Structure formats: structure tokens, C-alpha cells
Amino acid sequence: MENSFSKYHFDGQRNGENILLVIHRHWFDILSQFFIIFIMLLLLFGSYSLSTFFFANFGDPTYHALFAFLRSLFFLFTWITFFIIWIDYYFDVWIVTNQRIVNIEQKGLFARSTSELRLEKIQDVTTDVHGIISTFLNYGDILVQTAAEQEKFIFRNVPDPYAIKDLIMRLQKKFEHSENVEFTDMLSKKIHHDDDV
Amino acid sequence: MIYPIILTLYAIILIMFIFLCAFIIYHLFKYSINASLNRIMLPLFIIVSVLLIFSNMAFFFSVNWTNLFSNLL
Questions:
Q1: Residues A7, B35: C-beta atoms closer than 8 Å
Q2: What share of chain B is helix, strand, coil (3-state, %, to 5)?
Q3: What backbone phi and psi angles, to 5 degrees, belong to A154?
Q4: Residue among A69, A106, A109 whose CB faces B59 most closely
Q5: CB contact under 8 A, B33 and A95
Q6: How far apart are CA A85 and CA A89, in angstroms?
């Protein structure tokens, strides 16, 4: 699992911190936004036949150049809109590492926030798959409960939430176990040291 | 008289597009977590955007704006 994300790197990644999972929102979440792009492209290609239908008087070559310019401008606008939607989707990411969970939230082009949750702070993980489409396509929310005074950490509309939940729980248990072993080692060393003295 | 106004408006639109393109490139360059995907998306976006902006400028200057507006008004 570690090898598949070896080429990934994020801002603030620590030494010895391995990425175990990179989670984006489910593709269905972006589909509704890409529907706008689809409508825009439909309008663009439809304009070739519709312009002669609605603007029969604009048969002059001057108007041809004008329409070509407007179509080109509209396509440029569609192209940029497509990338803004894609950036908002692709850069909105949850990263599970062997030490913590990092949430990078991209809001359009001009806002970006990063929050993190250390594995030892996790108390409970729940999944919420709501609705017919979510159940059918297997995507939903994951709520990671931390200590009482802290807010919940939410993974929104992520694919395969049950598998992700299992992974987080396994990591948390592994982390807890290693901490217990460390504590026991430290305690036994201390006891032996006191006996020797 | 109308041509300088059209040209100014077009310059504003073009500057906005270039500004947005610069921000998209900055995001792809700075915040991408997957280097191999970045190697595809960054050149794709730059090449297509440059082509679209230059073709749009060519289309703009091919329109006879003075003649167009004298016909309309």
C-alpha cells in the first residue's frame, strides 16, 4: 500500500511520514459540476446551427468573424471553468499517513485550508452512507470523533467509506498498541534500573 | 470612437483570463500532491490555454468593429 503512494508528496510532510491513502471525493460529486461544462459545450456546438436559425440577418462575413470570436471567447471561458472545477475537486483531499490524517480543503482558486488530526487523538470512526445513489455507488461521509472538546473530522462524499473506516481503525489500534509497548518497555527499564540501584 | 472602448473591454477580459490561468498554473505547480499527474496536466493546460488565447486574439483582430457597429447603429 505504501508503494502506490510513494510518488505523492504534500506540503508539511514530515521525515519518516509515509502516505498510506489519498482520498478524493467520489467521482459522482464532481459529475454534477461537470454537467455545467457539458451544457456549455452543448451551447457552443449548438450555436453553429442555432445562430443561422435565430440570426438569419447576420449572414454577412463581418458577422461570421464576430461569431467566430464570440465562440472562441466562450470556449476559453469553458476551458478555464473546467480547470477551476477540477482543481476544486482534485486538490480537495484527505491524506492518511502512518502518523496522522491531513485534510486539505480547496475552496475555488483563492482559498485553501489545511487541518490535521493525529492518530492517537482518534476515539471513534463512523460512516454515513445516505440515499439510493450513495448506497448504489458506495460513497458517503466518514466522521472521525476525537476528544470531547474537539470538533469532528469529516470526510465528505468519499468512495468506499467502510474500507477507509477499517483502515483508520486499524492504524489507530496499531498506534495505540505501539504506544502501550513503548510505555511497558519504559516501565520495565525503570523497574530494573531501580532494582539495580 | 467605438473601437477604443471595445479594445479596452477586450483587454480587461483578456487580463482576467491570463490572471486566472496564472493562478491555475500556480496551483498545479505548487500544491499538486501527485508529481506524475502534474507532468501531464501542467503542459496540457499551458499549451491549450496559450493556443486558445492567441487564437482568440486573432479572431478579435479579424473582426471589423467599426464597420460592424456602423451597420448596427
A1: yes
A2: 90, 0, 10
A3: -115, 130
A4: A69
A5: yes
A6: 6
